[in-house]
Amino acid sequence: MGERGEEWEAVMLRKAEEEESKAVKKVKLVTSDGVTMEVEISTVKEMETIQAFMNATDTDNSIIFPLPKVSSHILSRIMELMSGEYDQELVKRLSHEELKEICMVANYLNMKTLLHLTASAIANLIQNKSVEFVRHFFNIINDFTPEEEVQLRKTHEWAFEGVDED
Amino acid sequence: MKRDNSREVRRRNRITVLLTRDLIIQILLRLPVKSLARFKSVCKSWFSLISDPHFAISHFELALACTERLLFLEPTVPEVRSIDFNAPLHDDSASAALNLSPESHCDLILGSCRGFLLLDCSPSLCLWNPATGIHKQVCHSPIASDMDAMFFTFLYGFGYDPSTDDYLVVQASYNVDSEVATRVEFFSLRANAWKEIEGIHLSYMNCCDDAKTGLLLNGAIHWLAFRCDVSLNVIVAFDLTERSFSEILLPDDICQCDFCDLGVLGDFLCLHVSGVHCPAEIWVMKEYKIQSSWTKSVDVSVDEIPTKYFSLICFTKSGDIVGTDGNNGLVKCNSEGQLLEHRSYSNCRSHSLAAVYTESLLSLPYDGDQAEED
């Protein structure tokens, strides 16, 4: 009897473990536009901000994580990039706005690979561009006086050669 | 005016993403120096960010956008050329004209380290960062100015000691009138003074007629020199942190060094014999300081080069070999030693000087009061 009892206990324990592991396999992310996206736990592993939260709370089966700064559009783009193993070709297809937004979200969620990828893509994009293009791209207002700007250009004249058309 | 600006920002805010300063830094760290020099004009905050010495150090050390260029100059001409040697030689946009500031001429290029070139612009030496224009004059060592002593300086070098965050100009000389005892001196940029290294008991001489300029690898400067006591050509290495010397043996098959010089291929030391009417030879030391690891890597044919001469300068990212034609031209060969391109930059028959430098935004220690930007 004692032997059977132990067996039974072992079975129940295993069952409970299975259930537990099944339960935390998915995480629900709620985007800024109110869409709930269920994602694999493996996906969340790369999102260090969420991972840290999960480690800290150390709970149960229903983890819901609100992302008030991330739209469903951008989150699905990020999922595409992750499942495509961060293919450069996928990055090239993003619009400038998408690229900037994904870069911001990667920083916010502390996704190192995605941050490196998008920051490098933006650097590549602007590398040979004019100062005017860059101001427009980043939405920056020129706070130099015309005289200061002329002087700066003169000092770094060589850097203004061979710039691409905007 | 200011109010208009902030209203403008708010209006634009609604339609487009504004990246935080942290992210802007992440992006700027991935740009080459040329783009950064241009983007100093974007706005005041970008100007101060890009000019920040800490940013310059991160940018150099992370090396996410590391670019190497070739400084190519004719000794008497004030205008010098900075060439992106990874691009085709005939691509005009890969070559930029720079003014050799503040000097009007350069007799020799004595070293290259962290974006700075050490030039001999007699009557003084000059440290110059071609990418930023930062420069600083360094006086010659006391013995170089002492005409009675009859010292011949046969080794020059320039390097960085990370343990003290200091740049060193190193030179070795011997007295032509007396016993062959090598005298080694270095200039510390932090101390702003020359100092002799005493008690080294070395007896090296020049292994060819010209003075040699050292080559940086693994925190040490390397030169070819002739060791008098055993009558042997060797590679002398000076460790910039330890301030001590060691030797590396040449391949057994190289007996004389008249047309030899050192180079760097990736992380490997290499030795090349200039080709004069015969192929140039390139040897690679596959394991640092292990003599048996010297391997003859490639012969560069000079048959198709108009001057019938080739002397190695560097390797491109893709493994092509770049060298001079002995006059004012550059030659590019593939890794098999076959000619890809030859370009002459001037009709003058003089011998151009060349040195590879890494583009950097770095400034020199104690820059504020000693060096100046253009």
Automatic annotation (TrEMBL), chain A:
<feature type="domain" description="SKP1 component dimerisation">
    <location>
        <begin position="112"/>
        <end position="159"/>
    </location>
</feature>
<comment type="pathway">
    <text>Protein modification; protein ubiquitination.</text>
</comment>
<feature type="domain" description="SKP1 component POZ">
    <location>
        <begin position="25"/>
        <end position="80"/>
    </location>
</feature>
<comment type="function">
    <text>Involved in ubiquitination and subsequent proteasomal degradation of target proteins. Together with CUL1, RBX1 and a F-box protein, it forms a SCF E3 ubiquitin ligase complex. The functional specificity of this complex depends on the type of F-box protein. In the SCF complex, it serves as an adapter that links the F-box protein to CUL1.</text>
</comment>
<protein>
    <recommendedName>
        <fullName>SKP1-like protein</fullName>
    </recommendedName>
</protein>
<dbReference type="InterPro" id="IPR016073">
    <property type="entry name" value="Skp1_comp_POZ"/>
</dbReference>
<dbReference type="GO" id="GO:0009867">
    <property type="term" value="P:jasmonic acid mediated signaling pathway"/>
</dbReference>
<dbReference type="InterPro" id="IPR001232">
    <property type="entry name" value="SKP1-like"/>
</dbReference>
<dbReference type="InterPro" id="IPR011333">
    <property type="entry name" value="SKP1/BTB/POZ_sf"/>
</dbReference>
<comment type="similarity">
    <text>Belongs to the SKP1 family.</text>
</comment>
<dbReference type="Pfam" id="PF03931">
    <property type="entry name" value="Skp1_POZ"/>
</dbReference>
<dbReference type="GO" id="GO:0006511">
    <property type="term" value="P:ubiquitin-dependent protein catabolic process"/>
</dbReference>
<comment type="subunit">
    <text>Part of a SCF (SKP1-cullin-F-box) protein ligase complex.</text>
</comment>
<dbReference type="Pfam" id="PF01466">
    <property type="entry name" value="Skp1"/>
</dbReference>
<keyword id="KW-0833">Ubl conjugation pathway</keyword>
<dbReference type="InterPro" id="IPR016072">
    <property type="entry name" value="Skp1_comp_dimer"/>
</dbReference>
<dbReference type="GO" id="GO:0016567">
    <property type="term" value="P:protein ubiquitination"/>
</dbReference>
<dbReference type="InterPro" id="IPR016897">
    <property type="entry name" value="SKP1"/>
</dbReference>
<dbReference type="InterPro" id="IPR036296">
    <property type="entry name" value="SKP1-like_dim_sf"/>
</dbReference>
TrEMBL record, chain B:
<dbReference type="InterPro" id="IPR006527">
    <property type="entry name" value="F-box-assoc_dom_typ1"/>
</dbReference>
<protein>
    <recommendedName>
        <fullName>F-box domain-containing protein</fullName>
    </recommendedName>
</protein>
<dbReference type="Pfam" id="PF00646">
    <property type="entry name" value="F-box"/>
</dbReference>
<feature type="domain" description="F-box">
    <location>
        <begin position="19"/>
        <end position="59"/>
    </location>
</feature>
<dbReference type="InterPro" id="IPR001810">
    <property type="entry name" value="F-box_dom"/>
</dbReference>
<dbReference type="InterPro" id="IPR050796">
    <property type="entry name" value="SCF_F-box_component"/>
</dbReference>
<dbReference type="InterPro" id="IPR011043">
    <property type="entry name" value="Gal_Oxase/kelch_b-propeller"/>
</dbReference>
<dbReference type="InterPro" id="IPR017451">
    <property type="entry name" value="F-box-assoc_interact_dom"/>
</dbReference>
<dbReference type="Pfam" id="PF07734">
    <property type="entry name" value="FBA_1"/>
</dbReference>
<dbReference type="InterPro" id="IPR036047">
    <property type="entry name" value="F-box-like_dom_sf"/>
</dbReference>
